[in-house]
Protein backbone atom coordinates (compact mmCIF):
# COMPACT_ATOMS: atom_id res chain seq x y z
CA UNK A 1 0.00 0.00 0.00
CA UNK A 2 1.34 3.41 -0.96
CA UNK A 3 1.35 6.30 1.47
CA UNK A 4 -2.19 7.69 1.85
CA UNK A 5 -2.59 11.45 1.95
CA UNK A 6 -5.41 12.97 4.03
CA UNK A 7 -6.33 16.62 3.73
CA UNK A 8 -8.42 18.46 6.32
CA UNK A 9 -10.04 21.42 4.59
CA UNK A 10 -10.93 24.21 6.99
CA UNK A 11 -8.95 25.65 9.90
CA UNK A 12 -11.87 26.39 12.20
CA UNK A 13 -12.38 24.75 15.60
CA UNK A 14 -13.54 21.36 14.28
CA UNK A 15 -11.05 21.36 11.41
CA UNK A 16 -8.12 21.95 13.76
CA UNK A 17 -9.52 19.41 16.23
CA UNK A 18 -9.81 16.66 13.59
CA UNK A 19 -6.39 17.54 12.17
CA UNK A 20 -4.81 17.38 15.64
CA UNK A 21 -6.42 14.01 16.39
CA UNK A 22 -5.27 12.53 13.07
CA UNK A 23 -1.80 14.02 13.38
CA UNK A 24 -1.36 12.73 16.95
CA UNK A 25 -2.52 9.24 15.99
CA UNK A 26 -0.16 9.01 13.02
CA UNK A 27 2.76 10.27 15.13
CA UNK A 28 2.04 8.19 18.25
CA UNK A 29 1.59 4.94 16.34
CA UNK A 30 4.52 5.57 13.98
CA UNK A 31 2.32 5.54 10.87
CA UNK A 32 4.03 8.34 8.97
CA UNK A 33 5.28 5.81 6.42
CA UNK A 34 1.67 4.89 5.62
CA UNK A 35 -0.26 8.12 6.16
CA UNK A 36 0.20 11.84 5.87
CA UNK A 37 -2.24 14.51 7.01
CA UNK A 38 -2.24 18.17 6.00
CA UNK A 39 -4.36 21.09 7.08
CA UNK A 40 -5.63 22.82 3.95
CA UNK A 41 -6.25 26.54 4.30
CA UNK A 42 -6.13 29.82 2.45
CA UNK A 43 -2.83 30.56 4.25
CA UNK A 44 0.25 28.65 3.15
CA UNK A 45 2.99 30.01 5.40
CA UNK A 46 4.46 27.93 8.28
CA UNK A 47 2.20 28.16 11.29
CA UNK A 48 2.47 27.20 14.96
CA UNK A 49 -0.68 25.33 15.98
CA UNK A 50 -1.66 24.75 19.61
CA UNK A 51 -4.13 22.15 20.85
CA UNK A 52 -5.38 21.69 24.41
CA UNK A 53 -6.82 18.24 25.08
CA UNK A 54 -9.70 17.29 27.39
CA UNK A 55 -7.31 16.88 30.33
CA UNK A 56 -6.01 20.40 29.84
CA UNK A 57 -2.66 19.23 28.46
CA UNK A 58 -1.17 21.58 25.84
CA UNK A 59 0.26 20.31 22.55
CA UNK A 60 1.88 22.35 19.82
CA UNK A 61 3.51 21.84 16.46
CA UNK A 62 4.82 24.01 13.66
CA UNK A 63 3.79 23.00 10.17
CA UNK A 64 3.35 24.34 6.70
CA UNK A 65 -0.31 24.67 5.80
CA UNK A 66 -1.34 23.39 2.41
CA UNK A 67 -2.70 26.24 0.31
CA UNK A 68 -6.08 25.56 -1.26
CA UNK A 69 -4.54 26.43 -4.63
CA UNK A 70 -1.42 24.29 -4.13
CA UNK A 71 -0.34 21.78 -6.76
CA UNK A 72 0.20 19.34 -3.86
CA UNK A 73 -3.57 18.87 -3.72
CA UNK A 74 -3.02 16.49 -6.64
CA UNK A 75 -1.58 13.97 -4.13
CA UNK A 76 -4.56 13.93 -1.76
CA UNK A 77 -6.55 10.70 -1.46
CA UNK A 78 -9.30 12.02 0.81
CA UNK A 79 -10.46 15.49 1.81
CA UNK A 80 -12.32 15.97 5.10
CA UNK A 81 -14.31 19.17 4.61
CA UNK A 82 -14.75 20.98 7.94
CA UNK A 83 -16.14 24.37 7.00
CA UNK A 84 -19.38 26.30 7.45
CA UNK A 85 -22.36 24.81 5.63
CA UNK A 86 -22.65 27.80 3.28
CA UNK A 87 -18.96 27.40 2.31
CA UNK A 88 -19.15 23.71 1.37
CA UNK A 89 -20.34 23.92 -2.23
CA UNK A 90 -18.00 26.69 -3.47
CA UNK A 91 -14.95 25.21 -1.73
CA UNK A 92 -15.55 21.66 -2.96
CA UNK A 93 -16.16 23.01 -6.46
CA UNK A 94 -12.84 24.88 -6.32
CA UNK A 95 -10.76 21.75 -5.53
CA UNK A 96 -12.38 19.04 -7.65
CA UNK A 97 -10.08 19.63 -10.60
CA UNK A 98 -7.00 19.89 -8.35
CA UNK A 99 -7.20 16.66 -6.32
CA UNK A 100 -6.71 13.07 -7.49
CA UNK A 101 -9.32 11.81 -9.99
CA UNK A 102 -10.36 9.19 -7.44
CA UNK A 103 -10.17 11.46 -4.39
CA UNK A 104 -12.86 10.83 -1.75
CA UNK A 105 -14.79 13.70 -0.18
CA UNK A 106 -15.98 13.61 3.45
CA UNK A 107 -18.37 16.35 4.57
CA UNK A 108 -18.29 17.21 8.28
CA UNK A 109 -20.33 20.30 9.06
CA UNK A 110 -23.41 21.50 10.90
CA UNK A 111 -26.82 21.53 9.28
CA UNK A 112 -28.12 19.73 6.22
CA UNK A 113 -28.49 20.40 2.52
CA UNK A 114 -25.00 20.96 1.04
CA UNK A 115 -24.42 17.22 0.49
CA UNK A 116 -27.09 17.20 -2.23
CA UNK A 117 -25.29 19.92 -4.19
CA UNK A 118 -21.92 18.17 -3.76
CA UNK A 119 -23.38 14.82 -4.87
CA UNK A 120 -24.58 16.54 -8.02
CA UNK A 121 -21.08 17.94 -8.65
CA UNK A 122 -19.55 14.48 -8.29
CA UNK A 123 -21.69 13.12 -11.12
CA UNK A 124 -18.99 14.57 -13.41
CA UNK A 125 -16.23 12.77 -11.44
CA UNK A 126 -17.20 9.06 -11.60
CA UNK A 127 -14.12 7.80 -9.71
CA UNK A 128 -14.81 9.96 -6.70
CA UNK A 129 -17.03 9.15 -3.74
CA UNK A 130 -18.88 11.04 -1.03
CA UNK A 131 -19.07 10.23 2.67
CA UNK A 132 -21.17 12.19 5.15
CA UNK A 133 -20.14 12.68 8.76
CA UNK A 134 -21.38 14.22 11.96
CA UNK A 135 -19.76 14.84 15.34
CA UNK A 136 -20.89 15.95 18.78
CA UNK A 137 -17.34 16.63 19.97
CA UNK A 138 -16.93 20.08 21.47
CA UNK A 139 -14.14 22.39 20.39
CA UNK A 140 -13.44 26.03 21.22
CA UNK A 141 -11.19 28.29 19.19
CA UNK A 142 -9.16 30.19 21.81
CA UNK A 143 -7.25 32.08 19.14
CA UNK A 144 -6.89 31.66 15.36
CA UNK A 145 -4.38 28.81 15.82
CA UNK A 146 -5.25 27.50 19.27
CA UNK A 147 -8.14 25.09 19.75
CA UNK A 148 -9.31 23.56 23.02
CA UNK A 149 -11.13 20.22 23.09
CA UNK A 150 -14.10 21.07 25.33
CA UNK A 151 -16.30 17.99 25.23
CA UNK A 152 -16.37 14.31 24.40
CA UNK A 153 -18.78 13.18 21.73
CA UNK A 154 -19.55 10.63 19.08
CA UNK A 155 -18.39 10.98 15.48
CA UNK A 156 -20.21 9.00 12.79
CA UNK A 157 -19.35 8.44 9.13
CA UNK A 158 -21.38 6.86 6.36
CA UNK A 159 -21.11 6.36 2.61
CA UNK A 160 -23.55 8.46 0.58
CA UNK A 161 -22.70 8.01 -3.10
CA UNK A 162 -19.96 7.17 -5.59
CA UNK A 163 -16.91 5.04 -4.92
CA UNK A 164 -16.44 3.81 -1.34
CA UNK A 165 -13.59 5.13 0.79
CA UNK A 166 -10.39 3.06 0.99
CA UNK A 167 -10.63 0.69 3.99
CA UNK A 168 -7.15 1.54 5.28
CA UNK A 169 -8.06 5.23 5.42
CA UNK A 170 -11.36 4.37 7.10
CA UNK A 171 -9.48 2.47 9.80
CA UNK A 172 -6.95 5.26 10.30
CA UNK A 173 -9.68 7.87 10.74
CA UNK A 174 -11.78 5.85 13.19
CA UNK A 175 -8.72 4.89 15.24
CA UNK A 176 -7.62 8.52 15.41
CA UNK A 177 -10.94 10.12 16.34
CA UNK A 178 -12.29 8.98 19.74
CA UNK A 179 -15.74 7.34 19.80
CA UNK A 180 -16.00 7.27 16.00
CA UNK A 181 -17.60 4.66 13.77
CA UNK A 182 -18.88 3.94 10.27
CA UNK A 183 -22.64 3.52 9.85
CA UNK A 184 -24.70 1.92 7.10
CA UNK A 185 -27.49 4.43 7.80
CA UNK A 186 -25.82 7.81 8.07
CA UNK A 187 -29.01 9.72 7.20
CA UNK A 188 -30.66 8.93 10.53
CA UNK A 189 -27.52 10.03 12.39
CA UNK A 190 -27.43 13.27 10.39
CA UNK A 191 -31.06 13.99 11.21
CA UNK A 192 -30.41 13.38 14.90
CA UNK A 193 -27.44 15.77 14.81
CA UNK A 194 -29.59 18.30 12.95
CA UNK A 195 -32.21 18.12 15.70
CA UNK A 196 -29.50 18.60 18.33
CA UNK A 197 -28.25 21.64 16.39
CA UNK A 198 -31.78 23.01 16.10
CA UNK A 199 -32.35 22.64 19.85
CA UNK A 200 -29.00 23.99 21.06
CA UNK A 201 -27.35 26.40 18.63
CA UNK A 202 -30.09 29.03 18.10
CA UNK A 203 -31.02 29.12 21.79
CA UNK A 204 -27.44 29.51 23.03
CA UNK A 205 -26.88 32.28 20.47
CA UNK A 206 -30.12 34.07 21.33
CA UNK A 207 -29.78 33.76 25.12
CA UNK A 208 -25.97 34.15 24.97
CA UNK A 209 -25.22 31.15 27.16
CA UNK A 210 -23.00 28.05 27.12
CA UNK A 211 -24.56 24.73 26.18
CA UNK A 212 -24.88 23.56 29.77
CA UNK A 213 -27.24 26.38 30.72
CA UNK A 214 -29.93 24.87 28.49
CA UNK A 215 -30.32 22.08 31.04
CA UNK A 216 -32.24 24.54 33.25
CA UNK A 217 -36.02 24.13 33.42
CA UNK A 218 -36.55 27.61 31.96
CA UNK A 219 -35.54 26.39 28.49
CA UNK A 220 -37.30 23.03 28.38
CA UNK A 221 -40.57 24.15 26.78
CA UNK A 222 -38.74 25.80 23.88
CA UNK A 223 -36.43 22.84 23.40
CA UNK A 224 -39.26 20.31 23.43
CA UNK A 225 -41.28 22.36 20.91
CA UNK A 226 -38.29 22.53 18.53
CA UNK A 227 -37.65 18.80 18.84
CA UNK A 228 -41.29 17.87 18.35
CA UNK A 229 -41.46 19.83 15.09
CA UNK A 230 -38.17 18.37 13.85
CA UNK A 231 -39.29 14.79 14.50
CA UNK A 232 -42.52 15.45 12.59
CA UNK A 233 -40.63 16.85 9.59
CA UNK A 234 -38.10 14.00 9.68
CA UNK A 235 -40.96 11.50 9.59
CA UNK A 236 -42.42 13.24 6.55
CA UNK A 237 -39.00 12.87 4.91
CA UNK A 238 -38.97 9.15 5.67
CA UNK A 239 -36.73 9.27 8.75
CA UNK A 240 -38.34 7.84 11.88
CA UNK A 241 -36.97 9.15 15.16
CA UNK A 242 -38.23 8.75 18.71
CA UNK A 243 -39.05 12.14 20.24
CA UNK A 244 -38.13 11.13 23.79
CA UNK A 245 -34.84 9.69 22.61
CA UNK A 246 -34.09 12.94 20.77
CA UNK A 247 -34.79 14.89 23.97
CA UNK A 248 -32.38 12.62 25.88
CA UNK A 249 -29.73 13.10 23.18
CA UNK A 250 -30.01 16.88 23.42
CA UNK A 251 -29.70 16.71 27.20
CA UNK A 252 -26.66 14.43 26.94
CA UNK A 253 -24.89 16.78 24.52
CA UNK A 254 -25.63 19.75 26.79
CA UNK A 255 -24.11 17.84 29.70
CA UNK A 256 -21.04 16.58 27.81
CA UNK A 257 -20.33 20.02 26.30
CA UNK A 258 -21.60 22.10 29.24
CA UNK A 259 -18.79 24.66 29.02
CA UNK A 260 -18.84 24.86 25.24
CA UNK A 261 -19.79 28.03 23.42
CA UNK A 262 -21.79 26.98 20.36
CA UNK A 263 -20.43 27.90 16.95
CA UNK A 264 -23.58 29.93 16.27
CA UNK A 265 -23.10 32.06 19.38
CA UNK A 266 -19.45 32.56 18.41
CA UNK A 267 -20.57 33.67 14.94
CA UNK A 268 -23.08 36.16 16.38
CA UNK A 269 -20.45 37.53 18.77
CA UNK A 270 -18.08 38.08 15.84
CA UNK A 271 -20.77 39.40 13.45
CA UNK A 272 -20.13 36.47 11.12
CA UNK A 273 -22.67 34.75 8.91
CA UNK A 274 -24.31 31.84 10.77
CA UNK A 275 -25.46 28.44 9.56
CA UNK A 276 -29.06 29.06 10.65
CA UNK A 277 -30.37 28.63 7.07
CA UNK A 278 -28.98 25.07 7.05
CA UNK A 279 -30.24 24.24 10.55
CA UNK A 280 -33.59 25.79 11.54
CA UNK A 281 -33.99 27.01 7.96
CA UNK A 282 -33.65 23.47 6.59
CA UNK A 283 -36.43 22.29 8.91
CA UNK A 284 -38.67 25.21 7.97
CA UNK A 285 -38.14 24.61 4.24
CA UNK A 286 -38.75 20.86 4.43
CA UNK A 287 -41.83 21.53 6.56
CA UNK A 288 -43.22 23.90 3.94
CA UNK A 289 -42.62 21.22 1.30
CA UNK A 290 -44.79 18.83 3.31
CA UNK A 291 -47.38 21.41 4.37
CA UNK A 292 -46.29 21.29 8.03
CA UNK A 293 -46.25 24.33 10.32
CA UNK A 294 -43.11 24.77 12.47
CA UNK A 295 -43.49 27.93 14.59
CA UNK A 296 -40.71 27.11 17.09
CA UNK A 297 -38.10 26.58 14.38
CA UNK A 298 -39.40 29.57 12.42
CA UNK A 299 -38.97 31.70 15.57
CA UNK A 300 -35.36 30.59 15.95
CA UNK A 301 -34.70 31.26 12.26
CA UNK A 302 -36.16 34.76 12.60
CA UNK A 303 -34.32 35.49 15.87
CA UNK A 304 -30.86 34.55 14.61
CA UNK A 305 -31.39 36.22 11.24
CA UNK A 306 -32.37 39.43 13.07
CA UNK A 307 -29.34 39.24 15.38
CA UNK A 308 -27.00 38.84 12.42
CA UNK A 309 -28.61 41.78 10.59
CA UNK A 310 -28.37 43.96 13.71
CA UNK A 311 -24.69 43.13 14.11
CA UNK A 312 -23.98 44.05 10.50
CA UNK A 313 -26.24 47.10 10.24
Automatic annotation (TrEMBL):
UniProt organism field: Shewanella aestuarii
Family: Belongs to the ketopantoate reductase family.
Function field: Catalyzes the NADPH-dependent reduction of ketopantoate into pantoic acid.
UniProt domain Ketopantoate reductase C-terminal: residue ranges: 185-303
Pathway(s): Cofactor biosynthesis; (R)-pantothenate biosynthesis; (R)-pantoate from 3-methyl-2-oxobutanoate: step 2/2
Reactions accelerated catalytically: (R)-pantoate + NADP(+) = 2-dehydropantoate + NADPH + H(+)
Domain Ketopantoate reductase N-terminal, first and last residues per copy: 6-160
A GO cellular-component term linked to this record: cytoplasm
Name of the protein in question: 2-dehydropantoate 2-reductase
Lineage: Bacteria, Pseudomonadati, Pseudomonadota, Gammaproteobacteria, Alteromonadales
Top EC category: oxidoreductase
One Pfam family here: ApbA_C
InterPro entries: 6-PGluconate_DH-like_C_sf (IPR008927), 6PGD_dom2 (IPR013328), ApbA (IPR003710), Ketopantoate_reductase (IPR050838), KPA_reductase (IPR013752), KPR_N (IPR013332), NAD(P)-bd_dom_sf (IPR036291)
Secretion signal span: none
Biological processes annotated in GO: pantothenate biosynthetic process
GO molecular function annotation: 2-dehydropantoate 2-reductase activity; NADP binding
Amino acid sequence: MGRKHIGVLGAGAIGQLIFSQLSAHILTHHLSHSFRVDLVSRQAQPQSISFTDLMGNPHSQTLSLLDIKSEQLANIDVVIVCVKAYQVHPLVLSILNKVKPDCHIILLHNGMGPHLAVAKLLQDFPQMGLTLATTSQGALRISPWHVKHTGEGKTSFGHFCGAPLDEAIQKCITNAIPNSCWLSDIQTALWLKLIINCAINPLTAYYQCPNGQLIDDAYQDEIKAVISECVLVASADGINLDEKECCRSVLTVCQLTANNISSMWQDIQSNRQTEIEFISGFIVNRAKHHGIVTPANQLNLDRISALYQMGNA
